[in-house]
Amino acid sequence: LAVDHDVADPALATAGAGRIAWAAARMPVLRSIGQRFGEAKPFAGIRIGACLHVTPETAVLIATLAAGGAEVALCASNPLSTKDDVAASLVVDHEVATFARRGEGVAVYASHVQAVASREPHITIDDGCDLIERLHSSGPERLRSRVAAADLLGGTEDTTTGAAHLRAMAAAGVLTYPVVSLSEATTRAMADNRYGTGQSVLDGIVRATNTLLAGAKVVVAGYGNCGRGVAARARGMGASVIVTEANPLRALEAVLDGYEVMTMRAAAARGNVFVTATGNRDVITAADFAEMPDGAILANAGHFDVEIDVKALAELAGGRRRPVRPGVEEFTVGGRGLLLLCEGRLVNLAAADGNPAQVMDISFAVQALACEWLVRHRGELEPAVYGVPAEIDGQVASLKLATMGIEVDELSPGQLAYLKTFGG
Ligand code: ADE
Predict the structure, then answer these.
(1) What are phi and psi of 206, to 5 degrees?
(2) CA–CA separation, 59 vs 48, rounded Å?
Protein backbone atom coordinates (compact mmCIF):
# COMPACT_ATOMS: atom_id res chain seq x y z
CA LEU A 1 0.00 0.00 0.00
CA ALA A 2 1.21 3.42 -1.00
CA VAL A 3 0.67 5.32 2.25
CA ASP A 4 2.08 4.95 5.73
CA HIS A 5 -0.56 3.38 8.00
CA ASP A 6 -1.37 1.18 10.97
CA VAL A 7 -4.84 -0.32 10.74
CA ALA A 8 -6.25 -3.65 11.93
CA ASP A 9 -6.84 -5.29 8.55
CA PRO A 10 -6.70 -3.69 5.08
CA ALA A 11 -8.89 -6.55 3.79
CA LEU A 12 -11.85 -4.91 5.56
CA ALA A 13 -11.74 -2.02 3.06
CA THR A 14 -14.73 -3.16 0.97
CA ALA A 15 -17.03 -3.26 4.01
CA GLY A 16 -15.70 0.13 5.09
CA ALA A 17 -16.29 1.63 1.64
CA GLY A 18 -19.93 0.58 1.83
CA ARG A 19 -20.41 2.28 5.17
CA ILE A 20 -18.65 5.42 3.99
CA ALA A 21 -20.93 5.55 0.91
CA TRP A 22 -23.99 5.16 3.18
CA ALA A 23 -22.84 8.12 5.30
CA ALA A 24 -21.85 10.22 2.27
CA ALA A 25 -25.34 9.84 0.80
CA ARG A 26 -26.69 11.47 3.99
CA MET A 27 -24.20 14.34 4.04
CA PRO A 28 -25.27 16.65 1.20
CA VAL A 29 -23.87 19.83 2.73
CA LEU A 30 -20.40 18.36 2.94
CA ARG A 31 -20.84 17.07 -0.61
CA SER A 32 -21.58 20.57 -1.91
CA ILE A 33 -18.60 21.96 -0.02
CA GLY A 34 -16.47 19.15 -1.45
CA GLN A 35 -17.54 20.11 -4.98
CA ARG A 36 -16.50 23.72 -4.41
CA PHE A 37 -13.23 22.61 -2.79
CA GLY A 38 -12.58 20.35 -5.77
CA GLU A 39 -12.61 23.36 -8.08
CA ALA A 40 -10.99 26.00 -5.85
CA LYS A 41 -8.40 23.70 -4.14
CA PRO A 42 -8.14 25.86 -0.99
CA PHE A 43 -5.81 23.31 0.64
CA ALA A 44 -3.32 22.88 -2.19
CA GLY A 45 0.06 22.16 -0.57
CA ILE A 46 -1.50 21.99 2.93
CA ARG A 47 -0.87 19.08 5.29
CA ILE A 48 -3.76 18.47 7.67
CA GLY A 49 -3.31 16.27 10.76
CA ALA A 50 -6.58 14.99 12.19
CA CYS A 51 -7.23 13.22 15.49
CA LEU A 52 -10.90 12.23 15.24
CA HIS A 53 -13.22 9.31 15.88
CA VAL A 54 -12.55 7.04 12.91
CA THR A 55 -16.11 6.64 11.65
CA PRO A 56 -17.76 6.69 8.21
CA GLU A 57 -18.75 10.33 8.78
CA THR A 58 -15.17 11.28 9.57
CA ALA A 59 -14.08 9.52 6.37
CA VAL A 60 -16.46 11.76 4.40
CA LEU A 61 -14.90 14.83 6.03
CA ILE A 62 -11.40 13.60 5.24
CA ALA A 63 -12.37 12.97 1.60
CA THR A 64 -13.82 16.50 1.42
CA LEU A 65 -10.58 18.04 2.68
CA ALA A 66 -8.56 15.85 0.33
CA ALA A 67 -10.78 16.99 -2.58
CA GLY A 68 -9.67 20.52 -1.67
CA GLY A 69 -6.03 19.51 -2.19
CA ALA A 70 -5.06 18.67 1.40
CA GLU A 71 -2.70 15.86 2.28
CA VAL A 72 -4.46 14.41 5.33
CA ALA A 73 -3.14 12.07 8.03
CA LEU A 74 -5.60 10.64 10.57
CA CYS A 75 -5.36 9.00 13.99
CA ALA A 76 -8.10 7.99 16.42
CA SER A 77 -9.33 10.32 19.17
CA ASN A 78 -10.53 7.39 21.27
CA PRO A 79 -9.32 3.77 21.29
CA LEU A 80 -12.84 2.31 21.36
CA SER A 81 -14.56 4.41 18.69
CA THR A 82 -12.52 3.26 15.67
CA LYS A 83 -14.40 1.36 12.99
CA ASP A 84 -11.67 -0.91 11.62
CA ASP A 85 -13.34 -1.32 8.23
CA VAL A 86 -13.52 2.45 7.77
CA ALA A 87 -9.85 2.79 8.72
CA ALA A 88 -9.01 0.10 6.13
CA SER A 89 -10.96 1.85 3.38
CA LEU A 90 -9.29 5.17 4.14
CA VAL A 91 -5.92 3.55 3.54
CA VAL A 92 -6.83 1.32 0.59
CA ASP A 93 -9.39 3.39 -1.33
CA HIS A 94 -8.50 6.95 -0.33
CA GLU A 95 -4.74 6.64 0.26
CA VAL A 96 -5.03 8.56 3.53
CA ALA A 97 -2.28 7.85 6.07
CA THR A 98 -4.42 6.35 8.85
CA PHE A 99 -3.28 5.16 12.27
CA ALA A 100 -6.13 3.55 14.21
CA ARG A 101 -7.05 0.13 15.53
CA ARG A 102 -10.16 -0.46 17.59
CA GLY A 103 -9.22 -1.43 21.16
CA GLU A 104 -5.64 -0.20 20.83
CA GLY A 105 -3.82 0.17 24.16
CA VAL A 106 -2.53 3.42 25.63
CA ALA A 107 0.96 3.06 24.15
CA VAL A 108 -0.28 2.29 20.62
CA TYR A 109 -2.82 5.10 20.87
CA ALA A 110 -0.03 7.53 21.80
CA SER A 111 2.22 6.24 19.01
CA HIS A 112 -0.59 6.85 16.51
CA VAL A 113 -1.03 10.46 17.67
CA GLN A 114 2.74 10.83 17.41
CA ALA A 115 2.69 9.43 13.86
CA VAL A 116 0.35 12.25 12.81
CA ALA A 117 2.19 14.92 14.83
CA SER A 118 5.53 13.98 13.28
CA ARG A 119 4.20 14.81 9.81
CA GLU A 120 4.27 18.47 10.92
CA PRO A 121 0.74 19.39 9.84
CA HIS A 122 -0.04 22.95 8.74
CA ILE A 123 -3.49 22.54 10.30
CA THR A 124 -4.53 20.30 13.19
CA ILE A 125 -8.02 18.94 13.72
CA ASP A 126 -8.78 17.61 17.19
CA ASP A 127 -11.56 15.94 19.11
CA GLY A 128 -10.26 16.17 22.66
CA CYS A 129 -6.96 18.07 22.13
CA ASP A 130 -4.68 15.01 22.01
CA LEU A 131 -2.88 16.14 18.86
CA ILE A 132 -2.54 19.72 20.09
CA GLU A 133 -1.18 18.36 23.39
CA ARG A 134 1.25 16.06 21.61
CA LEU A 135 2.62 18.87 19.45
CA HIS A 136 2.98 21.19 22.45
CA SER A 137 4.76 18.60 24.53
CA SER A 138 7.31 17.97 21.80
CA GLY A 139 8.72 21.49 21.84
CA PRO A 140 6.79 24.78 21.92
CA GLU A 141 9.79 26.66 20.50
CA ARG A 142 9.62 24.72 17.26
CA LEU A 143 5.87 25.40 17.12
CA ARG A 144 6.39 29.13 17.71
CA SER A 145 8.90 29.39 14.89
CA ARG A 146 6.59 27.46 12.57
CA VAL A 147 3.74 29.85 13.48
CA ALA A 148 5.99 32.87 12.89
CA ALA A 149 6.83 31.47 9.45
CA ALA A 150 3.10 30.95 8.74
CA ASP A 151 3.92 27.27 8.31
CA LEU A 152 1.66 26.16 11.18
CA LEU A 153 -1.61 27.96 10.48
CA GLY A 154 -3.79 26.81 13.34
CA GLY A 155 -6.12 24.12 14.52
CA THR A 156 -9.70 23.25 15.29
CA GLU A 157 -11.11 21.52 18.37
CA ASP A 158 -14.42 19.70 18.43
CA THR A 159 -15.35 19.16 22.05
CA THR A 160 -16.60 21.36 24.88
CA THR A 161 -14.11 19.62 27.19
CA GLY A 162 -11.29 20.42 24.78
CA ALA A 163 -12.35 24.06 24.52
CA ALA A 164 -12.09 24.46 28.31
CA HIS A 165 -8.64 22.89 28.21
CA LEU A 166 -7.50 25.21 25.41
CA ARG A 167 -8.75 28.27 27.27
CA ALA A 168 -6.73 27.14 30.32
CA MET A 169 -3.67 26.73 28.06
CA ALA A 170 -4.22 30.19 26.57
CA ALA A 171 -4.67 31.76 30.03
CA ALA A 172 -1.44 30.12 31.20
CA GLY A 173 0.36 31.50 28.11
CA VAL A 174 1.29 28.04 26.81
CA LEU A 175 -0.94 27.87 23.74
CA THR A 176 1.38 28.50 20.81
CA TYR A 177 -1.01 28.65 17.87
CA PRO A 178 -4.58 29.76 17.04
CA VAL A 179 -7.34 27.21 17.53
CA VAL A 180 -10.96 27.52 16.44
CA SER A 181 -13.27 26.04 19.06
CA LEU A 182 -16.16 24.45 17.20
CA SER A 183 -18.36 23.33 20.07
CA GLU A 184 -19.67 26.81 20.77
CA ALA A 185 -20.97 27.32 17.25
CA THR A 186 -24.77 27.49 17.34
CA THR A 187 -25.02 24.70 14.78
CA ARG A 188 -22.84 22.56 17.01
CA ALA A 189 -24.39 23.23 20.38
CA MET A 190 -27.85 22.77 18.95
CA ALA A 191 -27.71 20.13 16.22
CA ASP A 192 -24.69 18.04 17.22
CA ASN A 193 -24.87 18.09 21.00
CA ARG A 194 -28.60 18.33 21.60
CA TYR A 195 -29.97 16.23 18.77
CA GLY A 196 -26.97 14.13 17.72
CA THR A 197 -25.55 13.20 21.12
CA GLY A 198 -29.02 13.19 22.66
CA GLN A 199 -30.04 10.38 20.33
CA SER A 200 -26.77 8.49 19.94
CA VAL A 201 -26.18 8.15 23.69
CA LEU A 202 -29.54 6.45 24.14
CA ASP A 203 -28.79 4.39 21.02
CA GLY A 204 -25.55 3.18 22.63
CA ILE A 205 -27.26 2.31 25.92
CA VAL A 206 -30.07 0.44 24.17
CA ARG A 207 -27.75 -1.44 21.80
CA ALA A 208 -25.49 -2.50 24.68
CA THR A 209 -28.26 -3.57 27.06
CA ASN A 210 -31.56 -3.73 25.12
CA THR A 211 -33.08 -2.12 28.20
CA LEU A 212 -36.60 -0.65 28.15
CA LEU A 213 -36.55 3.09 28.63
CA ALA A 214 -40.30 3.49 29.04
CA GLY A 215 -41.01 3.62 32.75
CA ALA A 216 -37.30 3.65 33.68
CA LYS A 217 -35.77 6.29 35.91
CA VAL A 218 -32.98 7.87 33.91
CA VAL A 219 -30.55 10.08 35.82
CA VAL A 220 -28.75 12.61 33.62
CA ALA A 221 -25.73 14.27 35.22
CA GLY A 222 -25.02 17.66 33.65
CA TYR A 223 -27.54 19.90 31.90
CA GLY A 224 -25.31 21.34 29.18
CA ASN A 225 -26.21 20.86 25.53
CA CYS A 226 -25.55 17.12 25.57
CA GLY A 227 -27.36 16.56 28.87
CA ARG A 228 -30.36 18.55 27.63
CA GLY A 229 -30.51 16.36 24.55
CA VAL A 230 -30.22 13.09 26.46
CA ALA A 231 -32.85 14.18 28.98
CA ALA A 232 -35.32 15.27 26.29
CA ARG A 233 -34.88 12.09 24.25
CA ALA A 234 -35.13 9.84 27.32
CA ARG A 235 -38.36 11.60 28.30
CA GLY A 236 -39.61 11.11 24.76
CA MET A 237 -39.06 7.37 25.16
CA GLY A 238 -41.22 7.33 28.29
CA ALA A 239 -38.55 7.47 30.97
CA SER A 240 -38.93 9.68 34.00
CA VAL A 241 -35.84 11.80 34.10
CA ILE A 242 -33.87 13.13 37.06
CA VAL A 243 -31.24 15.79 36.39
CA THR A 244 -28.23 16.47 38.60
CA GLU A 245 -26.35 19.71 37.98
CA ALA A 246 -23.93 21.86 39.99
CA ASN A 247 -24.53 25.09 38.04
CA PRO A 248 -27.60 26.81 39.58
CA LEU A 249 -28.68 28.46 36.30
CA ARG A 250 -28.67 25.16 34.47
CA ALA A 251 -30.31 23.40 37.43
CA LEU A 252 -33.07 26.00 37.38
CA GLU A 253 -33.51 25.52 33.64
CA ALA A 254 -33.88 21.77 34.20
CA VAL A 255 -36.52 22.40 36.87
CA LEU A 256 -38.44 24.73 34.54
CA ASP A 257 -38.13 22.15 31.75
CA GLY A 258 -40.06 19.87 34.07
CA TYR A 259 -37.39 17.51 35.36
CA GLU A 260 -36.77 16.44 38.93
CA VAL A 261 -33.50 17.99 40.06
CA MET A 262 -31.49 16.70 43.01
CA THR A 263 -27.96 15.80 44.07
CA MET A 264 -26.29 12.71 42.65
CA ARG A 265 -26.25 11.19 46.14
CA ALA A 266 -30.05 11.50 46.33
CA ALA A 267 -30.51 10.32 42.73
CA ALA A 268 -28.22 7.31 43.20
CA ALA A 269 -30.79 5.34 45.16
CA ARG A 270 -33.53 6.09 42.63
CA GLY A 271 -32.06 5.63 39.17
CA ASN A 272 -32.12 2.64 36.85
CA VAL A 273 -29.95 4.23 34.17
CA PHE A 274 -27.24 6.79 34.89
CA VAL A 275 -25.74 8.97 32.16
CA THR A 276 -22.87 11.37 32.83
CA ALA A 277 -22.57 14.38 30.51
CA THR A 278 -20.74 16.98 32.58
CA GLY A 279 -17.21 17.12 31.10
CA ASN A 280 -15.90 16.88 34.67
CA ARG A 281 -14.38 14.10 36.75
CA ASP A 282 -15.72 12.12 39.73
CA VAL A 283 -19.39 12.71 38.98
CA ILE A 284 -20.46 9.25 40.19
CA THR A 285 -18.28 8.04 43.05
CA ALA A 286 -18.00 5.27 45.66
CA ALA A 287 -20.68 6.68 47.98
CA ASP A 288 -23.12 6.78 45.04
CA PHE A 289 -22.42 3.20 43.92
CA ALA A 290 -23.21 2.09 47.46
CA GLU A 291 -26.77 3.48 47.09
CA MET A 292 -27.63 2.14 43.64
CA PRO A 293 -30.27 -0.52 43.05
CA ASP A 294 -29.54 -3.92 41.52
CA GLY A 295 -29.26 -3.76 37.74
CA ALA A 296 -28.39 -0.06 37.57
CA ILE A 297 -26.80 0.83 34.23
CA LEU A 298 -23.85 3.24 34.22
CA ALA A 299 -23.01 5.06 30.99
CA ASN A 300 -20.77 8.01 30.21
CA ALA A 301 -21.48 10.49 27.41
CA GLY A 302 -18.55 12.82 28.12
CA HIS A 303 -15.38 12.88 26.06
CA PHE A 304 -13.08 11.47 28.77
CA ASP A 305 -13.56 8.35 30.87
CA VAL A 306 -13.24 10.28 34.13
CA GLU A 307 -16.88 10.98 34.99
CA ILE A 308 -17.69 7.58 36.49
CA ASP A 309 -15.09 6.60 39.10
CA VAL A 310 -14.40 3.18 37.61
CA LYS A 311 -11.43 2.58 39.91
CA ALA A 312 -13.63 3.04 43.00
CA LEU A 313 -16.27 0.76 41.47
CA ALA A 314 -13.65 -1.94 40.91
CA GLU A 315 -12.38 -1.56 44.46
CA LEU A 316 -15.88 -1.82 45.92
CA ALA A 317 -16.51 -4.97 43.89
CA GLY A 318 -13.17 -6.56 44.78
CA GLY A 319 -12.78 -9.37 42.27
CA ARG A 320 -16.52 -9.68 41.73
CA ARG A 321 -16.73 -8.38 38.18
CA ARG A 322 -17.53 -10.17 34.95
CA PRO A 323 -18.42 -9.36 31.36
CA VAL A 324 -22.12 -10.12 30.77
CA ARG A 325 -22.67 -8.84 27.21
CA PRO A 326 -20.39 -7.15 24.68
CA GLY A 327 -19.54 -3.77 26.17
CA VAL A 328 -21.26 -4.51 29.49
CA GLU A 329 -19.39 -5.46 32.67
CA GLU A 330 -21.22 -6.35 35.86
CA PHE A 331 -19.68 -5.26 39.17
CA THR A 332 -21.17 -6.82 42.30
CA VAL A 333 -21.37 -4.28 45.11
CA GLY A 334 -23.09 -5.25 48.37
CA GLY A 335 -24.91 -8.09 46.62
CA ARG A 336 -26.20 -5.79 43.84
CA GLY A 337 -25.09 -6.01 40.23
CA LEU A 338 -24.08 -2.65 38.71
CA LEU A 339 -23.65 -2.63 34.94
CA LEU A 340 -20.84 -0.48 33.54
CA LEU A 341 -20.97 0.20 29.80
CA CYS A 342 -17.81 0.35 27.67
CA GLU A 343 -15.39 0.83 30.57
CA GLY A 344 -16.95 4.25 31.24
CA ARG A 345 -15.86 5.54 27.83
CA LEU A 346 -18.14 7.62 25.63
CA VAL A 347 -21.06 5.30 25.10
CA ASN A 348 -22.46 6.74 21.87
CA LEU A 349 -19.31 5.92 19.91
CA ALA A 350 -18.12 2.88 21.85
CA ALA A 351 -21.45 0.99 21.84
CA ALA A 352 -23.11 2.52 18.78
CA ASP A 353 -22.26 4.48 15.63
CA GLY A 354 -21.92 7.93 17.18
CA ASN A 355 -24.01 10.79 15.94
CA PRO A 356 -26.03 10.14 12.79
CA ALA A 357 -24.61 11.22 9.44
CA GLN A 358 -27.32 13.87 8.98
CA VAL A 359 -26.00 15.63 12.09
CA MET A 360 -22.32 15.08 11.33
CA ASP A 361 -23.07 16.70 7.95
CA ILE A 362 -23.65 19.94 9.83
CA SER A 363 -20.78 19.49 12.29
CA PHE A 364 -18.22 18.54 9.69
CA ALA A 365 -19.38 21.26 7.29
CA VAL A 366 -18.50 23.74 10.04
CA GLN A 367 -15.22 21.87 10.52
CA ALA A 368 -14.32 22.03 6.80
CA LEU A 369 -15.19 25.73 6.53
CA ALA A 370 -13.24 26.52 9.71
CA CYS A 371 -10.16 24.90 8.13
CA GLU A 372 -10.67 27.02 5.02
CA TRP A 373 -10.98 30.10 7.26
CA LEU A 374 -7.63 29.26 8.85
CA VAL A 375 -6.02 29.15 5.41
CA ARG A 376 -7.62 32.46 4.43
CA HIS A 377 -6.27 34.09 7.58
CA ARG A 378 -2.84 32.55 7.29
CA GLY A 379 -0.34 34.49 9.41
CA GLU A 380 -2.97 36.93 10.75
CA LEU A 381 -4.18 35.13 13.87
CA GLU A 382 -2.94 35.22 17.48
CA PRO A 383 -2.18 32.09 19.50
CA ALA A 384 -5.63 32.19 21.08
CA VAL A 385 -8.95 30.35 21.12
CA TYR A 386 -11.31 31.64 18.42
CA GLY A 387 -15.04 31.04 18.14
CA VAL A 388 -16.51 29.93 14.84
CA PRO A 389 -17.12 33.02 12.68
CA ALA A 390 -20.87 33.74 12.70
CA GLU A 391 -21.05 33.73 8.92
CA ILE A 392 -19.87 30.09 8.81
CA ASP A 393 -22.57 29.07 11.28
CA GLY A 394 -25.24 30.86 9.25
CA GLN A 395 -23.93 29.56 5.93
CA VAL A 396 -24.04 25.94 7.13
CA ALA A 397 -27.57 26.33 8.50
CA SER A 398 -28.70 27.82 5.16
CA LEU A 399 -27.03 25.06 3.17
CA LYS A 400 -28.60 22.37 5.37
CA LEU A 401 -32.06 23.88 5.02
CA ALA A 402 -31.59 24.10 1.24
CA THR A 403 -30.64 20.41 1.04
CA MET A 404 -33.77 19.61 3.04
CA GLY A 405 -35.85 21.57 0.53
CA ILE A 406 -36.94 24.06 3.19
CA GLU A 407 -37.38 27.70 2.29
CA VAL A 408 -37.37 30.44 4.89
CA ASP A 409 -38.58 34.04 4.79
CA GLU A 410 -36.22 36.76 3.68
CA LEU A 411 -36.30 40.08 5.51
CA SER A 412 -37.65 42.93 3.39
CA PRO A 413 -35.62 46.17 3.02
CA GLY A 414 -38.15 47.77 5.37
CA GLN A 415 -37.60 45.08 7.99
CA LEU A 416 -33.81 45.37 7.71
CA ALA A 417 -34.06 49.15 8.14
CA TYR A 418 -36.37 48.66 11.15
CA LEU A 419 -33.85 46.34 12.82
CA LYS A 420 -31.05 48.82 12.16
CA THR A 421 -33.02 51.58 13.83
CA PHE A 422 -34.37 49.66 16.80
CA GLY A 423 -31.55 47.16 17.16
CA GLY A 424 -32.90 43.65 16.77
N1 ADE B 1 -18.64 12.39 17.22
C2 ADE B 1 -19.90 12.03 17.52
N3 ADE B 1 -20.42 11.26 16.56
C4 ADE B 1 -19.47 11.11 15.61
C5 ADE B 1 -19.42 10.43 14.37
N6 ADE B 1 -20.46 9.75 13.90
N7 ADE B 1 -18.29 10.53 13.67
C8 ADE B 1 -17.23 11.23 14.14
N9 ADE B 1 -17.22 11.88 15.29
C10 ADE B 1 -18.33 11.84 16.03
Answers:
(1) -70, -40
(2) 14
**Residues 284, 302 contacting (CB under 8 angstroms):** no
Query: Exposure string (b/e) for 94-133, b if CB count within 10 Å is 16 or more?
Result: bebbbbbbbebeeeebeebbebbbeeebbbbbbbbbbbbb
pLDDT of 423: 67
Ligand 1: distance of its center to the CA of 349 in Å? 7
How does DSSP classify residue 388? P
Assessment of whether the complete model's pTM goes beyond 0.85: yes
Strands 154-157 and 385-387, by their bridges, are unpaired
Amino acid letter, residue 196 = G
Compute the distance from residue 183 Cα to the ligand 1 centre, in Å. Answer: 13
pLDDT digits (tens, 9 = 90+) for 243-267: 999 999 999 999 999 999 999 999 9
* Mean pLDDT, all residues of the chain: 96
Distance 38 CA to ligand 1 centre (A): 24
Atom of ligand 1 nearest to the CA of 200: 3
Q: Are the C-beta atoms of residues 387 and 180 closer than 8 Å to each other?
A: yes
C-beta separation of 359 from 192 below 8 A: yes
